[in-house]
Amino acid sequence: MKKLMKTLFVCLILILSGSIAHAQEIEWLSFEEAVAKSKEEPRKLLIDIYTDWCGWCKKMDRDAYANSHVAEYISKNFYAVKFNAEQTESIEFDGHTFKFIPQGKRGVHELAAALTNNKLSYPTTVFMDENLRIIQPIPGYMNAKSLDPILKYIGGDKFKNTKWEDFQKNYQSSL
Fold it and tell me: For the chain, how big is the Rg over CA atoms in Å?
């Protein structure tokens, strides 16, 4: 009987932890889906520009985007986009057709280059406003603690009237 109760308890814990973890996941959209949603219900975009071979991109997925507090904030304040900088499908945006440009063994998508001001590095996190204008591309790996103040600065519209340096001085992270 004790063994049965212990097994049921472990199963209950696993089920509940899976439900909690699932509730905190980011709903990643394609670029086109996020643009369409933003036109219906305006919201900023957070675009994670990555490649399949990028180890730091995978580490950022684990260390930042998998964090429940980060995921919850992103889900409430942004449309989140996973954008493979080497995808081959063309994208129509803002009156332009952005295409994949083969280069050597790989290549680059023109939209990834445009979103990063032709300064490609992986990962790069790009923020766009509700009017689909670039606010800021931020190159490089970030963990949850380093991403948190950036999310609050941009998601809370602090960037509109507060210098980043001043925001950082007064910001207290909950992470």
Answer: 19
Q: What is the pLDDT of residues 55-71, one digit of tens each?
A: 999 999 999 999 999 99
Long-range contacts of the stretch 168-174 (C-beta < 8 A, 24+): 173/145, 173/148, 173/149, 174/69, 174/148
Q: Is 17 exposed, middle or buried (0-12, 13-18, 19+ CB in 10 A)?
A: exposed
Residues of the chain with pLDDT under 50: 4-5, 7-8, 10-12, 14-16, 18-23
Coil/strand/helix, residue 88: coil
Place of tokens 């814990």: 13
- Of 129, 20, 137, nearest to 69 by C-alpha is 20
Q: Are 167 and 158 a contacting pair, CB within 8 Å?
A: yes
Q: What pLDDT score does 10 carry?
A: 45
What pairing do the DSSP bridges indicate for beta strands 134-139 and 124-128?
Answer: antiparallel
3-class secondary-structure state, position 93: strand
pLDDT at residue number 15 = 47
